[in-house]
Amino acid sequence: MDITREIYWNVGHGVVLPMYLFAALTLVILIYGFVRRIRVYRQGKRLQRLDRLPKRILRLVNRGIGQLRVMLVKAPGIAHALQFWGILLLFIGTVLVLIQVDFTEPLFDFQFLKGTFYQVFSLTLDLAGFVVFIMLVAFGVRRYFYKPKGLATTRDDYIIYGLLTLILLTGFLVEGARMAVTEVASRPDLTALSPVGLLVARPLAGLDESVVRQIHVLTWWTHFFLVMTIIALVPFTKFRHIFTTPVNYLFADLREKGAIDTLNLEAADADHFGAAAVADLTWKDIFDADACTSCKRCQDRCPAWNTDKPLSPMKVVQQIGEVAFGRPQANLIETVTTDVLWACTTCYACQEICPADIEHVNKILEMRRHLVLMQGEFPGGEVQTAVNNTEVNGNPFGLAYASRGDWAEGLDVQRMADGGKVDVLYFAGCYASFDKRNQSVAQNFIRICNAAGIKVGILGKEEKCCGEPVRKLGNEYLYQMVAAENIKQFKAYGVSRIVTTCPHCFNTLGRNYRDLGLEVEVEHYTVFLERLIREGALHLNPQEFDFTYHDSCYIGRYKGIIKEPRQIMHQAGGSITEMAKSKNESFCCGGGGGRVLAEEKLGRRINVERVKMAEATGAPMLVSNCPFCLTMFEDGIKTGGSEGKLKVRDLAEIIGERIAQK
Amino acid sequence: MKILVCIKHVPDMESRFRVNEAGNWYDERDLAFRLNEYDEFAVEQAVRVKEQLGGAADITILSIGPDRVIEAVKKGLAMGGDRGVHIKDDLVYQKDPWQVASVIAAFARDKNFDLVFTGMQSQDRGSAQIGAAAAELLDYACITTLVSFEISGDVVTARRELEGGMRGAVRFKLPAVVTCQLGLNTPRYPTLPNIMKAKQKELLTFPIADFLNVESLAETEKMYPPERKGRGLVLEGDVNELADKLASILKEKAPALR
After folding, report:
1. Is domain B2-210 in CATH 3.10.50.30, yes or no?
2. Which of A378, A400, A476 sits opposite B14 (nearest CB)?
3. Domain at A51-249: CATH architecture
4. pTM for the full model?
5. ipTM strictly over 0.95?
6. What is the mean pLDDT of residues A259-288?
7. Which of A373, A434, A462 is the best residue to mutate to test the B interface, defined by the most B CB atoms within 10 Å of its own CB?
8. Do A344 and A336 form a contact (C-beta atoms < 8 A)?
9. Longest C-alpha distance within chain A, in Å?
10. Collapsed DSSP state (helix, strand, coil) of residue B82
11. Whether B32 contacts chain A with CB within 8 A
């Protein structure tokens, strides 16, 4: 006997015509729905996102089919992946049936759903259906009974859950009815290939065959129309993400993490900067809203949201969609609100976790650009003062630019203006230059380099703010101004290698200055020191200490420098106790995105929150690698009442105290 | 309405000042310059008047000094001025306030300005005489140290800041010279399109000789940092200890508490 089943059993080949007619209608609705949406995406500015296509396709396969991003959050991620793969298998199975019965069989008299292949096919689909059903139950329980904080349930969720559940149930009913008549009594070998279907088939087998046949026809059509309904509804509900999210992997920003468009401020037609309306954004920014699945993973990790500030990265992305689709002429900034825009620390936690490759940070930046460049608005007077100070004195504190190199008094460093060859240029940055607490980082760094026999140069009063804080606040003009001056100095001195102790300077000089014509090797001191130790140039005299380590956003998440600092601390004698939120999941100190210059007026304080996390490890010392973090934590320890319980040190200070003389 | 705003390009007060070689002014090396803070209030108020009049005003921004002052003029233009005037004088620091006011008056005399705004004083010299002297020379009303300004027709209602936390309310008719004090307004941050437009705006340059027709009445003889007397004292310890220490120091050093 053949190992197969009769396709169109009980419903007959007469269903083919109406079935295809309805399928065609469904497809028309589906396409119509997306065409309407594409028209909305096209309100945005042009942007090329199909270069390096093989890389993009690979990304689509890994992240879409492979579900690698979704599974970054274990429990719901794996459940989603199982459900996705299950539905994908059921879809492929259905297409296989269609190919055989309506194409290869009538045209070439060729059947492939038989024998071993049929056995695999039957068992796979039966189990896939079961997995999808179990996951639906699990998701239902999660969404409607045990509800995670922040998970919003909308009309779409009811529709999709309802339809998917009904499709699964009717599917098993169709299978069970067919098996009850054709397999239960006569073909136990086949029923073994559909163990779940058999559970439905057994009770049906006791009924009169004509009743079962009627049930079958009825549920067959019901199942069919339910499937057509859900397909037709794809563009009109959240279920659209089965297209838009994978497509978003294809359209991903393949530039280096943290890349920002460098505006051409001198362009003849440049009279409008930043984004105040959806038309000022790109089509991809609008498309992102459609790719969002409301999984709220970004919101869960947002330091602003977690300290009772109004910013939810998810909401910002969705509001762009709401405006684009509902009120395209509306003022986007008024919809999102300035409080939301100024709350962002550009920590990148949202983008790092997003399973849909949505780009949150640059959207916020574009709107900030509009506020600053077109309206002269800042989060507060103190920020405007800091910006003015940066303009006049090249540092946000407004301290005399001529005293910028004073911290190096008495140290063995070469001022570039005095001439002489150096191994590296140390770009100290504003905080290490002027801030009393951070000057110790610069001084320690020089001592370490001296011990390793590295000749270090500094620009001193010829150095200016790298421009990062003001740029992240939206002031592209001032950023380009200070950047041009710094680049001029680097070029004048023929600088070929730069080391920074500030992650913000590091990211800016090494990545963003490239757009402005600087092609110089830039390193952060964590990587630089790790190599000096590894290559034997720097010898440490380890002394034991317990600590917890804060991955600054711009070293950890943006640059992936996670191992090196831990390695150095280990070699210095440190025993680490990790915080719950560390490495790629580190929680911002609150100082990024120019926020270090702003008062934190809304919600609880981010730095105190992070200091508490460090304190919870029981370690007496918090080590960081960033002047903003050091400043924020010193403040957080004082204002949060952690004095005496926790000290914050910079990695350079720890190493500086443990230099072994050769 | 024709408005003149007189501004000065001054060193940032956080700069590291050194006396120049001649010993009569500061050395300009290593100084960062900016628009005099009080003059920024003056520019802002002028632009607000223009906005209130729906644009029916013409604002001239005037500065006297070496080429670097053009930077301050550009800032004024970016904030909303219509044209810049640079009266070039590399040795402006040697001119006394009377001469500077005379230059301004000579420039303004035949131009029928309705309103002249300037800062209450410059942050570097701080003579606070320019506005008043120029008003006298032009035979305009003069109202100094404004902290509020409202104009209706050709009548201005304003408040002045007086010593000892007092305020004075004044009403006067145009033409007038007014000098602006901290608290009058919050100067705007120029928008990028306005910064770009400012680069295209008219900028007239004149040599100082065109307008200078008086001798100086006072000369700066010597410039020197004051002698350092006594030093700050930093107390450390816990709060109770600090309070005791502070109390004993006050008892010892402050005669009023004895």
Report:
1. no
2. A400
3. Up-down Bundle (1.20)
4. 0.93
5. no
6. 92
7. A373
8. no
9. 102
10. coil
11. yes
